[in-house]
Amino acid sequence: MQIRKMIRSFKFAFQGLKMLFLKENNAKFHLLAAILVIITGLYFKVSANEWIFLIFAIGLVFGSEAFNTAIEKLCDKISPQKDPVIGHIKDLAAAGVLFFAISAAMVGLIIFLPKILERL
Question: Mean pLDDT throughout 46-68?
Fold first, then answer.
């Protein structure tokens, strides 16, 4: 792959990130949650293995949020009017984000709850 094409690809990807975090409220919420998780991880000095799980969970939530947003935008472009099938597609995409967000929260609880209880 040519360097210029690769740089251009990264430019488009970063434009997508910018759009995601500036325009999508759920992505803003997940970003705030990720920042809190990182701060909490630094505070409790989590192990390298724990960081792997936390970073992977955060990445899955952000990735699924990006896919969900792309699916919603595409659905809105294809069918601006209300359509039950489009509604189901959007609901399924949102369910994917919810699934990863709940899984990420469970990872956070498994890692942080014992550390919090230990300090009480």
Answer: 98
Range of the domain at 80: 25-119
Q: Would you state the structure tokens that stand for residue 69, as one six-digit string?
A: 């947003």
Structurally, how many domains does the chain consist of? 1
Interatomic CA distance for residues 46 and 37, integer angstroms: 11
**Residue 109: inside a domain:** yes
Residues 58-68 pLDDT 10s: 999 999 999 99
Q: Is residue 75 part of a domain?
A: yes
pLDDT band at 69 (very low <50, low <70, confident <90, very high): very high
Q: Which residues of 48-79 are buried (b: 16+ CB within 10 A; e: fewer)?
A: eebeebbeebbebbbebbbebbebbeebeeee
9 in any annotated domain: no
CATH number for the domain spanning 102: value is 1.10.287.3610
Burial class (CB in 10 A: 0-12, 13-18, 19+), 106: exposed
Check pLDDT > 80 for residue 1. no
